[in-house]
Structures are given as C-alpha cells and as structure tokens.
Design goal:
By secondary structure, the protein is α+β, with helices and mostly antiparallel strands. It is 36% helix and 30% strand. A hairpin with a 2-residue loop joins strand 3 and strand 4. The longest helix has 18 residues. The two termini are 25 Å apart.
C-alpha cells in the first residue's frame, strides 16, 4: 500500500490541504476518493497517477469530476510514499510550467529540510 503525505511549509501550512479546503464538498470528495484509490491499488493505474515527463521526477494525481480537471503534483519518496505539494484546476492540455515550478521549489525545500 502506498502512503500519501502532504508537503508542509516551514510555517506548518499544507498547500494541498488548503487547496482541498477551497473545493466544494463534491469536488473534494472525488479528489479524496481518487487518492484512496491510488493508495490501495499501488501501483496505481495511470488514469489516476502518472509520472510527469521532462520534470525533476514529479508525479501527477489526476482527477476528473463534472467537467473539471484537478491535478495534485508531488514526488515519490522511495517506492512507497507519495508526497503531494501542489494542487490546481487544469485548464489547458499541457500542465503549465508555473505549476511545475511551484512543485519543484517545494520539493527542493522538502529535500533540504530532510537532510
């Protein structure tokens, strides 16, 4: 089983938890259902979790609900832990570079804090 953790800033804030709090109840429920499916079906089907190309080893949790596309970006720590660091509603075919950069910055903070 995969462990899913949320990145926390030095101030103890979790950008993913804050993002989920901003969704309506049905949207948040669908995202949480998807995260549960990812946890229980490791390795998860690529429809739910996919490694992103041309990134610093980032992964993308993918949620489609009622015509909306939600993405949670993060990275794997070892083989059994996914750290999610950023969430956004996807409006374009490609993941915007800004969203990738936010996640990569948080990954650098996380890795430097761990060492």
């Amino acid at each position: 089983m995969l462990v899913i953790d949320f990145f926390k800033s030095a101030e103890g804030k979790s950008p993913v938890a804050e993002y989920l709090d901003g969704l309506d109840a049905k949207q948040a429920a669908k995202v949480l259902w998807t995260l549960s499916a990812i946890k229980l079906t490791h390795p998860a089907p690529s429809v739910y979790l996919k490694k992103m190309l041309a990134t610093d080893d980032l992964w993308e949790a993918r949620v489609i609900f009622a015509g909306n596309i939600f993405r949670l970006l993060g990275w794997m720590e070892g083989t059994n832990k996914l750290v999610l660091a950023h969430g956004f509603a996807k409006k374009t075919e490609k993941t915007p570079l800004q969203e990738i950069q936010i996640t990569e910055n948080r990954k650098n903070i996380y890795e430097n804090k761990e060492t």
